[in-house]
């Protein structure tokens, strides 16, 4: 228990006394707080936990300073997204050093080649890290890292490992520069930039490259696409290695009999594992997902949830999207010329059309489903969402906005009507303030929904 919200029949003089009473009632409360009477005491408390941040039973990234008096809390009240009587002091991300053993590359679902640092294991911000992305060849040059360097790493936002740069004074002379490979490490195809000025290079063997196949099938099962239980990375690998599927077109033709040929889906005695029934059921459920999720699952380059929803709303079927010209696609708000060209190129390939055909025959949604018309209380309004929300997932809030007639955009501009700010909002909030775009919290958004 870290705070007190709505209450009936009981009042507290202060937050600290509330903690004391709740503990006496047997509720779990944190004892890692202190009532401070001076600024110096607050500073000392902050400094103590900065030094001992990894001694706490869970990872922390800072300390929250609150007014203890409940009456003073109530007098100060709240902003649109946070209490005025509390403020967080964030510690700088922990930085550690380790040796960069090698720079390897990974191949993504659209063929993008991403170099990453392979390092001696080191603990940072509560977990052991061995890998960190280096994005592209230009970023490696900018950071100035060499294979064999001692490098400084941290977790961006205490979450994502990143290499900051080398410790120059610890170089021995045996370090060597990274050379981007010219051949795909998975299929041997010649790597190349797919468009003029592209800083990324890609594997052009989209149909047969094992890495791209694995990543695409894994992505189909993710929450960003069709949200298929069991279909994680290991399952994707198992399906391909056992040749149960050739590519994603076979995914919705799976049967318990086909799955039984893989050890991943069987018990030691050879009978079907519990994951077989779960996967078959999840695949059936995935067939009913809305059209825009099917579009996302196709892994068309540049087409994410926002563009997919725009395409679904405008065309209402994959067949009509496939028949559209680049100009017709580009004219749709939320699509544009780059995405339009990518869509046209995707549908130009026969094997891509075979995916659509086989999925349609299996019952996957390829035509927008008729849904009960909800009150269009957000008609004509454009929203940008930043930060975490309590009542909505990232995709769920976009669906809610669209279902009520609004538009969910990924970037803030003068055309944005509202920025919906949740917990830990990013740079979009600052952009909204800069442009004078109204910022609302989740409660205000729900009021707009109700009209």
UniProtKB/TrEMBL annotation:
<keyword id="KW-0235">DNA replication</keyword>
<dbReference type="InterPro" id="IPR036420">
    <property type="entry name" value="BRCT_dom_sf"/>
</dbReference>
<dbReference type="InterPro" id="IPR001357">
    <property type="entry name" value="BRCT_dom"/>
</dbReference>
<keyword id="KW-0862">Zinc</keyword>
<dbReference type="GO" id="GO:0003911">
    <property type="term" value="F:DNA ligase (NAD+) activity"/>
</dbReference>
<keyword id="KW-0520">NAD</keyword>
<dbReference type="Pfam" id="PF12826">
    <property type="entry name" value="HHH_2"/>
</dbReference>
<dbReference type="Pfam" id="PF01653">
    <property type="entry name" value="DNA_ligase_aden"/>
</dbReference>
<protein>
    <recommendedName>
        <fullName>DNA ligase (NAD(+))</fullName>
        <ecNumber>6.5.1.2</ecNumber>
    </recommendedName>
</protein>
<dbReference type="GO" id="GO:0006281">
    <property type="term" value="P:DNA repair"/>
</dbReference>
<dbReference type="Pfam" id="PF03119">
    <property type="entry name" value="DNA_ligase_ZBD"/>
</dbReference>
<keyword id="KW-0460">Magnesium</keyword>
<dbReference type="InterPro" id="IPR012340">
    <property type="entry name" value="NA-bd_OB-fold"/>
</dbReference>
<dbReference type="InterPro" id="IPR041663">
    <property type="entry name" value="DisA/LigA_HHH"/>
</dbReference>
<dbReference type="InterPro" id="IPR004149">
    <property type="entry name" value="Znf_DNAligase_C4"/>
</dbReference>
<keyword id="KW-0436">Ligase</keyword>
<dbReference type="GO" id="GO:0005829">
    <property type="term" value="C:cytosol"/>
</dbReference>
<keyword id="KW-0479">Metal-binding</keyword>
<dbReference type="InterPro" id="IPR013839">
    <property type="entry name" value="DNAligase_adenylation"/>
</dbReference>
<feature type="domain" description="BRCT">
    <location>
        <begin position="373"/>
        <end position="451"/>
    </location>
</feature>
<dbReference type="InterPro" id="IPR010994">
    <property type="entry name" value="RuvA_2-like"/>
</dbReference>
<dbReference type="InterPro" id="IPR013840">
    <property type="entry name" value="DNAligase_N"/>
</dbReference>
<keyword id="KW-0234">DNA repair</keyword>
<dbReference type="Pfam" id="PF03120">
    <property type="entry name" value="OB_DNA_ligase"/>
</dbReference>
<dbReference type="GO" id="GO:0006260">
    <property type="term" value="P:DNA replication"/>
</dbReference>
<dbReference type="InterPro" id="IPR001679">
    <property type="entry name" value="DNA_ligase"/>
</dbReference>
<dbReference type="InterPro" id="IPR004150">
    <property type="entry name" value="NAD_DNA_ligase_OB"/>
</dbReference>
<keyword id="KW-0227">DNA damage</keyword>
<dbReference type="InterPro" id="IPR033136">
    <property type="entry name" value="DNA_ligase_CS"/>
</dbReference>
<dbReference type="Pfam" id="PF00533">
    <property type="entry name" value="BRCT"/>
</dbReference>
<dbReference type="GO" id="GO:0046872">
    <property type="term" value="F:metal ion binding"/>
</dbReference>
């Amino acid at each position: 228990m870290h705070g007190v919200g709505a209450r009936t029949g009981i009042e507290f003089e202060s937050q600290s006394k509330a903690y004391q009473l709740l503990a006496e009632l047997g509720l779990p409360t944190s004892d890692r707080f202190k009532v401070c009477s001076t600024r110096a005491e607050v500073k000392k408390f902050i400094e103590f936990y900065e030094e001992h941040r990894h001694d706490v039973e869970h990872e922390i990234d800072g300390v929250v300073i609150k007014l203890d008096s409940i009456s003073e809390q109530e007098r100060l009240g709240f902003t649109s997204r946070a209490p005025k009587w509390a403020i967080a002091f964030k510690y700088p991300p922990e930085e550690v050093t380790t040796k960069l053993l090698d720079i390897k590359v990974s191949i993504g679902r659209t063929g993008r080649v991403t170099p990453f640092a392979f390092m001696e294991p080191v603990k940072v911000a509560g977990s052991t890290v061995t890998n960190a992305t280096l994005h592209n060849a230009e970023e490696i040059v900018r950071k100035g890292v060499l294979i064999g360097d001692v490098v400084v790493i941290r977790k961006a936002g205490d979450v994502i490992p990143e290499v900051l740069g080398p410790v120059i004074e610890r170089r021995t002379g045996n370090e060597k520069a990274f050379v981007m490979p010219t051949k795909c490490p998975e299929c041997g195809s010649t790597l190349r930039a797919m468009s003029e000025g592209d800083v990324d290079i890609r594997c052009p063997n989209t149909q047969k490259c094992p890495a791209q196949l694995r990543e695409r099938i894994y992505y189909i099962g993710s929450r960003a696409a069709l949200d298929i239980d069991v279909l994680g990375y290991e399952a994707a690998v198992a399906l391909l290695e056992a040749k149960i599927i050739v590519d994603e077109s076979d995914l919705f033709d799976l049967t318990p009999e086909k799955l039984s040929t893989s050890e991943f889906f069987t018990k030691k005695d050879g009978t079907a594992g519990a994951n077989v029934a779960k996967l078959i059921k999840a695949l059936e459920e995935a067939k009913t997902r809305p059209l825009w999720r099917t579009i996302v699952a196709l892994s068309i380059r540049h087409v994410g949830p926002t563009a997919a929803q725009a395409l679904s709303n405008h065309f209402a079927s994959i067949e009509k999207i496939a028949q559209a010209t680049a100009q017709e696609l580009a004219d749709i708000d939320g699509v544009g010329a780059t995405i339009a060209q990518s869509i046209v190129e995707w549908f130009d390939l026969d094997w891509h059309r075979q995916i659509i055909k086989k999925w349609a025959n299996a019952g996957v949604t390829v035509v927008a489903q008729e849904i009960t018309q909800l009150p269009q209380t957000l008609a004509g309004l454009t929203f940008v969402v930043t930060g975490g929300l309590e009542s909505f997932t990232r995709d769920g809030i976009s669906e809610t906005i669209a279902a009520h007639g609004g538009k969910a955009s990924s970037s803030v501009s003068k055309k944005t009507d509202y920025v919906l700010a949740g917990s830990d909002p990013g740079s979009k909030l600052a952009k909204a303030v800069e442009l004078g775009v109204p910022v609302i919290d989740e409660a205000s958004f729900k009021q707009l929904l109700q009209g």
